[in-house]
Amino acid sequence: DMQGIDWSKLGNTWEGARSVRKLYHQHPMVRQHPQPLSATELPDTEEFFQFRQMNMEHRAWIDHYQLRNLMVSTSHSDVYYVARSRIMHTNSSSVRASCVMDLTDPWTSSSIQAGEFRVTALASAADILVAGGYRGEYALQNLRSEYGTSPVKGFATHNRAAITNHLHTSTTRTNGSPQAIFCSNDKQVRVLDCFTDTFVNEVQYEDYVNCAATSPNGRLRLLVGDFEGSMIVDADSGRLLKHLDGHINNAFACAWADDDIHVATAAEDCHILVWDARNWSKPLGDIANETSHTTSLHFSPLGSGKRLLIAAESADIVNVIDANTYSSKQVLPFFGDIAGVSISVDGSQLLVANGDRKFGGLITYQRDDYG
């Protein structure tokens, strides 16, 4: 098959292995909460993407089993992924990869903080690559800098338990400069000005925040974490504006569409909620997962055709949902834990980082109706 698995030698079939994997993910010891009755199982009737290729030379490394945003693409041909304590750059069509951030050497004199930089989150914006680490550290790399230029390094917090749960980028409303939003495991959300390498905002919450998404206009922020439901807060003050019900377990994925209207959240209760920012009273859609919980959500960019919602489960499945109707989808199946997904800036290409140690790699799908 596309992953190089010779089923004849394994004494099994692709379909048989898929059914066993599905039973595993639905076992009560794995799925601790039953899927809500309100969640709708969408039919797999669409063909938005076609498989293009799989490159098994590029395997992203998952350091924390719940944190799966370890790959980004900054252009149609530039892909960055986490390889232990290194950030690698490649073209999806190439077998070669180069290291753009080597974080393997101890880079602080503090005996408390000394050690390798274990990358748990990755994001990019405006030719800047941002990596967050296991102990509150971060690194910035200017992608236009001369080859061999060392990244700028620092700490979002010196709390050793404050792992970087999630990173995303946005732009300031005043001058459009890039900023990185850190969700740290000390119940704080911090905003870093990437041009000045200065933290310009810091908000403390009552619960752990595992993922955030900022509205395109920069005024609102969506938060999910170790609490039920999700929160809409003021992006500057952090003040709670609206609490959205619907999830009963910890959440690790959310997204805000480029149209400034639609948002999506997903939790370990194995369903996805879609909301319309013009009416927070009830969700626009309640979508059941295939097997496991969603770990990464992405809306397709504006101008790339029919709007899609990409929902990557923790293993084996990427759901491509029709984000106009939320009534149908395409299931992209394979075998392996998902380290990250990324859709190209023009929406024509979907990349999946399969972190399986034996059959993993970089999977590329091409949009079927593009152009």
TrEMBL record:
Check the record and name the PROSITE patterns matching this protein: WD_REPEATS_1, WD_REPEATS_2, WD_REPEATS_REGION
UniProt cross-references to SUPFAM superfamilies, sorted A to Z:
WD40 repeat-like (SSF50978)
In residue terms, where are the WD repeats?
244-279
Question: At the top level of its lineage, which domain of life is listed?
Answer: Eukaryota
One Pfam family linked to the record: WD40
**InterPro entries on file:** WD40/YVTN_repeat-like_dom_sf, WD40_repeat_CS, WD40_repeat_dom_sf, WD40_rpt
SMART domains referenced in this protein's UniProt entry, alphabetically: WD40
What is the official name of this protein in its record?
WD40 repeat-like protein
Q: Which organism is it from?
A: Tothia fuscella
Which keywords are on file for this protein? Answer: Repeat, WD repeat
